[in-house]
Amino acid sequence: MPATAADPSPIAGPSAVTGGIGGLLRSGRASRGLVTILGATILLFLVSLVAQPDSLSRSSLQGMLPFAAVLAVIALGQTLVVQQAGIDLSVPGTVSLAVVLVTHVPDGDSGKLLPAVLLALLAGLLAGLLNGLVVSRLGMPAIVTSLGTNALLYAVVLGVSGGSPTSTTDAMRTIATGALLGLPHAVWFAALLTAGTGFLVKRSVAGRRFEAVGDNPVAAGLAGLRVKRHQLAAYVWASLLYTVAGILLAGIVTTPSAFQGDSQLLPSVAAVVLGGTSLLGGKGSAVASVVAALFLSQLNQLVLTLGVNPATGNIVQALALAAGVAIYTIDWPAVRARLRRGRPRSAVA
Amino acid sequence: MPATTRTTTPALSLAGVTKTYGAVRALTDVSLDVLPGRVHALLGENGAGKSTLMGVASGSVQPDHGDISVDGEQVPVLTADAATRLGIAIVHQHPAVLPDMTVAENIRVAVPAGRMSTGGSTRAWMADLLRTVGSTVRLHDRVDGLGVAQKQLLEVAKAVALEPKVLILDEPTAPLGADQTEMLFEQVRKATARGCAVVYITHRMAEVRRIADEVTVLRDGSVRGTSRVADIDDDALLRMIIGRELAAAFPAKHPPSDDAPEVLDVTGLSGEGFHDASMSVRRGEIVGLAGIVGNGQSEFLRALAGLVRSTGRITLDGRPIAGRALVDATAYMPADRHAEALMTTMSVRENAAVSALPALATAGVVDRVRERAAVDEEVRRLAVKTASIDTDVMALSGGNQQKVVLARALLAGPKILLADEPTQGVDVGARAEIYQIMRDVAASGVPVVVVSSDAKELEGLCDRVVVFSRGHVVGELDGDEVTEENITSTVVGAVTLRRQESGPAAESGGGSRLRRLAKGDYAPSVVLALVILALGAYTFAHNTRYLAPFNVSSVLALLSALAFISMGQTVVIMTGGIDLSLGPLAGLLVVIASFFLVDGATAGTIVLALVIMIVVAAASGLLNGVLVRYGGFTSVAATLTLYIGLQGVSLLLRPFQAGFISTGITDLITATTGSVPLAFIAAVVVAVGLELALRLTPWGRGLRAVGSHEDSARRLGVKVNRAHVLAYVVAGLLTFLGALLLMAQIGVGDATQGVSYTLSSITAVVLGGASLLGGRGSFIGTLLGAALIQQVLNATTFLDLGQSWQYFFQGFLILVAAAVYTQARLRSRRAT
């Protein structure tokens, strides 16, 4: 049988598919995560207004906002770590250490507050360096590293405090809970840090490269970027943010416990996920995480003021989280196709 | 050509197969018949669609359209599993081996047990099998440490062992030496003698002549012709493969004038994979680096870019340069576009600009207007086909993606451009454009160095070609000498000298038993056992009450609860996932028990309670598994969701401590024999049982296979989704056992207990030496890890150390253990 040479015309390079909504949003400078969580938060406040106006009363908001601000600052840090495909379990230790340092060191003496704050920041820096160096240089998984670091931090927390709480200083209380233009100082702190971090990540050379490293560290390295340095920066910057959050917390709570940071870990990860930052790393939105922190805090507040069992809050949170992840990660067209074909295919995690 | 016109029914028949990936058409209406007892060669360039077509034939790729028939019977949906059952075996170009498992285990996963137990011992059978394909590895070697050739031979052995009706070989000889190739051909002849139909994929015409009966040529995803090998000459084949006259595809060369200045000069450069290599590049030139893949040319190119360590001398524009300065002065384009070049979730603009950002910024802040203008201009200049520069880069075709990578390199304003296989997986049209761009770049004063395994490409593109073999420069061709024949003969001439990869036996040398133990899954267990003994001895020396029966008994009881939950965690971590919800699940199960297992509970109530607990545990695992495998959740996201949800349910059911567990039941659970709790014995028995199951049963091998290399496991026919989901369910059930012990210890329904077990269980698993990347771990190790955690908590009180020290030791242990294990693994990988 002779050879049958078929049509010799080469296939032209297929014309590019449009970026769709993703492209539109990108050029409009807002991520899909931010749009989604903003919508959900506005919806939540509307529901609160209808279902339980008390949850939006002045006193209720004054009670909720400082805690929301603290969670927001922590979520900001967690976002940076998640952008490098990590997860930071040392949040509780870092926050608690900051709390005990700014309460136990001054022991009620406002004059000793400044050195205590500096000491806390130094401790945060060291914790971040430990996490960052071990992860970036030794190639250890972030989840294990930060788990170990967290235990070491708690060793220091207990060494400093003996496990007992101490009342906060007056100066710290004023700094954290005083109000400017009707908003608690803590909220202003959070807003400033969010704006600063968001600007750095999205607009600076270092931040843009930071996101590229998180997306594909191998490619980033081969493109000439300093991968380890960017990874280290994520952990250090995050740890300093947790420390600031801890310091604020020490002013908001009159007699903060030595384990004050424990309750912050899961909400911080939840906020990052709800904000649409992929746990696989890459692009993320600091602002979206912060809005998600506000969302979670208001959700708690609503449940609280409704007077139902507080545990309902957990369940609602879990449902919100599941819905949030599902919106971002499920490949809906594929699901529809799969249902039509009735044949399961492996999901892309 | 329809099958009915044949006298013999084709063993494998593909008809009208079409497959698209996003915007890229990989296969268009491809038909292929393979007859029993014949070797059918599939010829084509890189990216012609050969591997995709064979993926379709072996069930790992699902076509958009087209029919597949085996032995004349149409198969509606061909999965990897079904393909194996129908007698189709494939040797992948990238071996589908499981790196974390041994050679023997890799064979066991691939070959049904029935086929191996033909009298005599299975191990002898496997050793025999390896000998027939020319492999020198040992059965207990971990595949991770094998070289490419040995992995390839293992892959061949697995396929041959199945005595398939259809054997597909995808470029099998690429990493093999001459003797090994000869043995492979021998196996192919044996197979056809048995009546097996062989599909032989290659891009070497010489091999087609040697072994094939029929040949089909693919180009750009379509069949360009089919013929008997004897009826067609090389020129005709070549025309079908490349499709157009050579000259048309390449731009005219502009060889630099003799007085063109030298831009780059390399003297005696050595590094991993290349040795004492020297070359120079002049302004205006395109220099090619030729050689068979894996002969050091790619590594050499990376060294030129300053991306890997090297010794020797590099001068750029007459000045010595090294380190960071070299990285900044050069631009490098990797061969593997998806894995090594693109930021896959980012846009064209973000990908293109990333290297050039400092030049587009003022005071460290990126100037958006300048950035857009620069990227826009570059994208237009390179004729990148994209809707806008804000389009996702993954929406582009391969050729246009490569142009984006090229744009990134050029925007950085390099002094020299270094490209590794720049046209791999790029369609013909875009390929010609890329050649033109490179020529323009060279003409503009930035010399280009190209690594390519395609001699035709080097002939058409390069002014000068440097040939690599075994990491050495073995020849240089200049001007008119740069022809495909010259390049190939220099390469081939050197190939005869190519050292055959030796088996690992030669590498490890003496003391290999100890080394093997140190690299094995049980090294962490041995270390842990020693640490436990040492800590025990030290504590006992300080305080003899430490070994009092009461204390021993209570420590063993406490560690048993943690051990069960940690074993559950081990199952999930073995798949490469993590289960954060196990702690709250344990807590919820205790809370549930506190409603039923109170004083006066009847036997019926007790059974009911146990059933409810088991159902809840299994359902929680199932939900995790489904979210992870079918919902696109990462394991952290899924199990975190359940963590919060389960905790909420617990608090809802028991806002306050209440519901005392009947002492009759707790006494039963905490019963001891001597000072050893029965629960501890149960934990040991379960750990040993699971350990054996992990090593010896299909479930265990499937679990490790999935965690070790999911894609390989799928191609081997392991039911990947099922293995993952089952892992979460088993984790839930083991947590149920742990919860029973926890319930007896707490004695009351308390929603806040249990939560801490999540982190403790992860700690125990890490101490036990499991890899969080999956594929490796041991239940014995986890048991010992749980023991060490509990021992540290207990010993600190006997040593009069405060709670602070408990935390310190835990943190210290986990960091040190993880660091030691990670480094040990990296070293063993690097050693080979």
Automatic annotation (TrEMBL), chain A:
Residue intervals passing through the bilayer: 33-51, 63-82, 113-135, 142-163, 175-201, 232-253, 265-282, 289-309, 315-335
CDD domains membership: TM_PBP1_transp_AraH_like
Subcellular localization: Cell membrane
Coiled-coil spans in chain: none
Annotated membrane topology: Multi-pass membrane protein
Main location, first listed in the record: membrane
Keyword Cell membrane in annotation: yes
Record keywords: Cell inner membrane, Cell membrane, Membrane, Transmembrane, Transmembrane helix, Transport
Subunit and interaction comment: The complex is composed of two ATP-binding proteins (LsrA), two transmembrane proteins (LsrC and LsrD) and a solute-binding protein (LsrB).
Known role: Part of the ABC transporter complex LsrABCD involved in autoinducer 2 (AI-2) import. Probably responsible for the translocation of the substrate across the membrane.
Protein name listed in UniProt: Autoinducer 2 import system permease protein LsrC
Automatic annotation (TrEMBL), chain B:
Membrane topology value: Multi-pass membrane protein
Residues of the ABC transporter domain: 12-245, 258-495
UniProt keyword annotations, A-Z: ATP-binding, Cell membrane, Membrane, Nucleotide-binding, Repeat, Transmembrane, Transmembrane helix, Transport
Intracellular or extracellular location(s): Cell membrane
Transmembrane segments: 522-540, 546-565, 577-597, 603-623, 630-653, 673-694, 725-748, 754-773, 780-799, 805-824
Gene3D superfamilies per the UniProt record, alphabetical: P-loop containing nucleotide triphosphate hydrolases
Presence of the UniProt keyword Membrane in the record: yes
InterPro entries the UniProt entry points to: AAA+_ATPase, ABC_carbohydrate_import_ATPase, ABC_transp_permease, ABC_transporter-like_ATP-bd, ABC_transporter-like_CS, P-loop_NTPase
Coiled coil: none
Gene Ontology terms for molecular function: ATP binding
Alphabetized SMART domains for the sequence: AAA
Keyword match Nucleotide-binding: yes
Matching PANTHER family: CARBOHYDRATE TRANSPORT ATP-BINDING PROTEIN MG119-RELATED (PTHR43790), GALACTOFURANOSE TRANSPORTER ATP-BINDING PROTEIN YTFR (PTHR43790:SF9)
Identification of the protein by name: ATP-binding cassette domain-containing protein
